[in-house]
Amino acid sequence: MENREYFDKYEESLTDLLVQLCTGLGAMNGQLLAAEELEEKWKEIAPEYMVDAVPQIQDYPTVSVAWAGYLGIGLAVLWDKEWAKYKDDPDLYKFFVRPRGFDCMDEFIIEELLGIGLESKEFTEIEGVIRSCARTAVDMIRKENIEPQSPDAFYVFARSVRCFSKLVCLLH
Predict the structure, then answer these.
(1) Cα(33)–Cα(168) distance, rounded to whole angstroms?
(2) pLDDT tens per residue, the chain (172 residues)?
């Protein structure tokens, strides 16, 4: 991958911006905590996520980023509750998508894994933070002025969703 330094700097800037936004929204305390096991699992399932998310970019750019956040929340829930059962599952991504499909993965994770009703205040708050973060990420992607559908566009998107999945997994 060419421009690795550029992509690293981009990801660091986006992470800083999203941590600042989440802190301002009261969803974080100003620092990003790392969970190596979750980062490793993201690397394993990211290719499957990208297959579902990339076709969504043109019509639903915010969703294509935001769903990585919900996936991060789902991973964090499993990590807290039953990680020994799921950590080696080669089909873990399908666990999140299969019940309701990619388009409704957010609802599955919130309702079934977190046990939060879709009509609740808590759901509205989570959704608001994720939406704000996703819009910010999409805005930052656009500000990079990278040629659409280019290799650089793919890498910026991939870095954005990875950053987003790490950040939002801590909101659960």
Answers:
(1) 11
(2) 568 999 999 999 999 999 999 889 888 887 777 778 888 999 999 999 999 999 999 999 999 999 999 998 899 899 989 999 999 999 999 999 999 999 999 999 999 999 999 999 999 999 999 999 999 999 999 999 999 889 999 999 999 999 888 876 555 4
Q: Measured between alpha carbons, how far is residue 7 from residues 137, 142, 161 in Å?
A: 14, 14, 13
| Spatial CA neighbour of 76 closest among 31, 42, 116, 121 | 42
CA distance 9 to 150: 19
What is the pTM (predicted TM-score) of this model? Answer: 0.91
Let me know if 93 is exposed, middle or buried by CB neighbors in 10 A (0-12, 13-18, 19+).
buried
How many Cα atoms are found within 13 Å in the side-chain-facing hemisphere of 145? Answer: 0
Q: Which of 113, 132, 101, 103 is nearest to 75 (CA)?
A: 113
CA distance linking residue 116 with residue 154, whole number of Å: 33
With the C-alpha atoms ordered 142, 7, 132, 128, is the resulting torsion angle positive or negative? positive
What CA–CA distance (Å, rounded) separates 157 from 18?
Answer: 15
Q: How many residues in the chain?
A: 172
Q: Any idea of the CA torsion for 52, 78, 170, 67, to the nearest 10 degrees? A: 20
